[in-house]
């Protein structure tokens, strides 16, 4: 049995309007019990009605109620959205009245989960709702809206349709060998079809590296030895005093974070403790965190002091980050530079010189300016990409089996695996536990 649920769907706090979303088989009847105005059980779907929320015969608030009759609603259930005044007290009071009149408080993401279960959304659309809400730049919004319009679903379904066609033909060959009109599925038939899909998936995975940066930003770690200007760089980019700046080495003992938009890319900046040998216990913990941040970062800003000769610590950091996507930043060019490294960006955080060149290098290294030309041929998050990689690996295995001239029924096992992995992207083959875990990331009223 489906419960009747409710939750505040707008940001918590003082504002002009708060919206409380109610959903369930009895949602309209239950709201109608506490609503003074037109009988909501007799109105048409997608209509708005003025009235009052009542409690023990007293008016609590002057509201507008939007009524949506199943299945023509966001989640496929009967729904009422109560637009009340936006004060914290009055919003919570209306919510409490709903809870004592047959509703329970919705779990995080439960409205979107119901929309998915009622086939109003596929899993990629549900994920894109939160991406739209959290968009920080134009490209992030465009990519999220594209998925909300089912571009990701359609992309995945093209692959699944091809794989399903192959599976069906193999099954006909196995179960009905006497059927003359069936295409005989051989290794020679399978190999070019599988190879084409492998190439298409490879292109999508490549494009998805760019799309995830556009939509979710790029985790950027600022590293360097103590006192080279890491915190000054963070503060300069953020245009605020986020980190303490001091000439005393080791001032930054833990990671300091902040986000910034540079054009159409969002950088999630992490200023780390200077990496060097230290006997200070607290500082040593900060250095260990810095090493882990380097390992997990998508992009490294390696900051070096251009006014001093490169030290052993500098050279160690150059070696430590050489296999990472990085930008070498030579700071303090307001002083006389003592060295030159090809490809380094020379800046002065003191005089704010070279920052334009740094921004151009970031856009170049992330390929973010190519995003709009991808035309929806990408995935939107790590979960989707990981599943596509598994499907890709399954098809690689199937192709290798074709090359080894293995039996077709053995090759079918890998083809089915690819089909199932792709189904998990859209939610058509996702286990219940995964669905629950995904929707707990949502807001209460979503």
What does this structure look like?
This protein has 446 residues and is an alpha/beta fold. The chain folds into 3 domains: 5-122, Probable tRNA modification gtpase trme, domain 1 (Gyrase A, domain 2, 2-Layer Sandwich), CATH 3.30.1360; 138-213 and 378-427, tRNA modification GTPase MnmE domain 2 (Four Helix Bundle (Hemerythrin (Met), subunit A)); 217-349, P-loop containing nucleotide triphosphate hydrolases (Rossmann fold, 3-Layer(aba) Sandwich), CATH 3.40.50. 45% of the residues lie in helices and 18% in strands. It has 14 helices and 13 strands. It has helices at 27-33, 88-99, 110-117, 123-133, 138-148, 151-175, 187-216, 230-238, 281-296, 312-320, 355-366, 382-403, 408-426, 432-439, and strands at 5-8, 15-23, 35-37, 47-55, 58-68, 79-86, 104-105, 218-223, 256-262, 265-271, 299-305, 326-331, 345-346. The strands form 2 sheets. Strands 3-4-5-6-2-1-7 form a 7-stranded mixed sheet, with helices on one face. It has a 6-stranded mixed sheet with strand order 9-10-8-11-12-13, sandwiched between helices. A hairpin with a 6-residue loop joins strand 1 (5-8) and strand 2 (15-23). Helix 4 packs antiparallel against helix 5 (138-148), helix 6 (151-175) packs antiparallel against helix 13 (408-426) and helix 7 (187-216) packs antiparallel against helix 12. The chain starts with a strand and ends in a 7-residue tail after the last helix.
